[in-house]
Amino acid sequence: MSLAWSALIAASLLAARAIPPVEGYEDALVQWGLAQEGLSPEPDPEGKRLESVRVVSEDVVAPTDPYPLFLNVFHVRTREQVIRREVLLEPGKPYSVALAQETARNLRKLGIFAVVRVVAVRGSSPDAVSLLIITKDLWSLRLNQDFQVVGSLVQSLRLQGTEQNFLGLNKKVALDFLLRRDSLSFGQTYVDPRLAGSRWSLNENAYLIYGREDGQLEGSKGSVLLSRPFFSLDTPWSFQAQVAWRVQPVRVFRGADIWELPYPEGGTVPYVYDAREFSGSTLYLRSWGSRYKVDAGGGLGAYHRRYGAPADSGLDEARRAWLRDTLLPRSEDATYVLGYIRLWETRYEVMRDVDSYALSEDFQVGHYVTATARYAPALFASAGNFAEVGLTARYRVRLGDALSSVAAAASVRRLLGDEGRWSNRRWAAEVQQVSPKVLGGRFVVRGLLDVNIDDLNERVLLLGGGNGLRGAQPEAYSGKRMALVNVEYRTAPLVLYTVHLGGVLFYDAGSAFDESPGFVHSVGVGVRLLFPQFNTFPFRIDFGYVLNDDRPPVGGRFSFSGGQVTEFRPGFLDAPL
Length: 577
What we know:
Blueprint: H1 3-14, H2 25-37, E1 49-58, H3 80-84, H4 97-109, E2 113-122, E3 128-137, E4 141-150, E5 153-163, E6 172-180, E7 183-192, E8 201-211, E9 217-228, E10 237-251, E11 253-254, E12 257-258, E13 260-262, E14 268-270, E15 272-288, E16 292-308, H5 317-326, E17 332-345, E18 347-351, E19 361-376, E20 386-399, E21 402-415, E22 421-434, E23 442-452, E24 461-463, E25 477-479, E26 481-490, E27 494-496, E28 499-513, E29 520-530, E30 539-546, E31 558-562
Parallel strand pairs: 1-3
Antiparallel strand pairs: 2-3, 4-5, 4-31, 5-6, 6-7, 7-8, 8-9, 9-10, 10-15, 11-12, 13-14, 15-16, 16-17, 17-19, 18-19, 19-20, 20-21, 21-22, 22-23, 23-26, 24-25, 26-28, 27-28, 28-29, 29-30, 30-31
């Protein structure tokens, strides 16, 4: 953990109150906002005439926070027009609770606020109401951190010098540094959610990649995305166009060393290959419905992908061919047409103390189903010729203060022409249960199963360390399939001024396998730290103890990361193609 975060923790502990505040963090801010404007809540606003929209924003460092107030000099608060342009209600029209809630969700999704609350307040007459929007910014001039550490091994460390809310205009400019076990990446990012004040969004990034061993430039990657998203539930259409590239060597590690693959004829082959990827795509969608939405449309795309052993690898032709045919992703070119449909229910629940502390967390409930189909004709000699389908489904329900989720995804490809066979058969399923409050905290249980049957990209799943099986060696277990169970009890936080400090007891069981699973079990304890002025997610420090397999040295049983362990999940569950 950096010296900066250590200083924040120390300041919080030194300034801690003997008795934590009675109100929740957000509720106290609502009371502050009402007092600032001299207003009182309207208990029954639905359908009343909306008189006005008011906005009140607290300083990022307030007198109740354990940090010096002069820090506000270095932060420009979000400008009021940035907040107002996201409001979906219009003065003079009837007040809608659903639109007020959607406004709050949209503002939270911007990622620039620690707190967003919308409150209906009494108007000047019994048939009138006003909307009060209360916000508190996240600290925007920051050194964002995303890291994965197990013991003394730094698996990845991303430092992003960011102005997340440039001049309070909700534009992000950043310089990126990414450290991996084999490379250093330097890059930049620019995100403008409202390009030139319009509903169009621009997101671009580019990186140069240097080898850690020799310091030489060895690749680059980047992307540009221009989109007009569904900015409200009533938006009739959306469009996006994207280009991306990646040219770099890929080295697969197990622990601190490159994975040495056993070669059938004897000896080993390092799991290292060159990747060259270029892609472009467009997607246009139309939307229908109100409570039950149908979003459907199509697009065009093309890509070029090449993978092979590095020219300077020293491998003979037989070993190069074995590596290419056995373990590397499939090299292919394709030009395709795409069809997409999404069916979902526009119900949301706001909960607290699930993945974060005290802050509002939005969960879509009900069904959420997508289907994607791609057809790639053989337009030229080297082009792939295939048809493929990907499906996802999730159902989430809130019962009282408990939240239950079931998700699944599947994909399959049919190779056409001379190859004429099925491939890329893969499916995955996840079940997650969040309990009601128990002694102030919550139990969270997650079960995950990921099954590859005949993957053309030869994906290998690695398990161990901070990615779900805590206490084990990093990437100690490998296979084409994975099963994982995580059980946690997340305590209620101790509030030190506004810093939230919580504990975790956990049990993990997991297996990465090819044929039949052999589960490894671990138990442990952890700490969660949330600084709501700076992040909406907690920092995670866990210590695990393996019960039935090899154990690393004591220092290697610690893992450090941002977010909860349940956030480690296959991207396949959301995007199977």
